[in-house]
Amino acid sequence: MSDAPEAPVAPEVRQPVVTPVRVIIALCLVAPFVAMLWVSSYAKADPDFIGIPFFYWYQMLWVLISTALTLIAYQLWQRDQRGRKALKDGASR
């Protein structure tokens, strides 16, 4: 065994798991569920839109909104993952 002191090992830098971007991603994905599960907010016939009761057109509108929010969440996730990978690759060099 050697009595020579060992070089100190630098602690691994870990990024936090909960970041503002990840909170926004979660909100984008949860919002449609909350909107659709809160039935009392849209369980009515008025106002109608081109003869379609509010109950139906509100749900159809959320199909489009959900698509947009999912796309935003996906793009934010991809950007977050690229940033984490770049940080990891930069730290390992």
From TrEMBL:
<keyword id="KW-0812">Transmembrane</keyword>
<keyword id="KW-0472">Membrane</keyword>
<protein>
    <submittedName>
        <fullName>DUF3311 domain-containing protein</fullName>
    </submittedName>
</protein>
<keyword id="KW-1133">Transmembrane helix</keyword>
<feature type="transmembrane region" description="Helical">
    <location>
        <begin position="23"/>
        <end position="43"/>
    </location>
</feature>
<dbReference type="InterPro" id="IPR021741">
    <property type="entry name" value="DUF3311"/>
</dbReference>
<feature type="transmembrane region" description="Helical">
    <location>
        <begin position="55"/>
        <end position="77"/>
    </location>
</feature>
<dbReference type="Pfam" id="PF11755">
    <property type="entry name" value="DUF3311"/>
</dbReference>
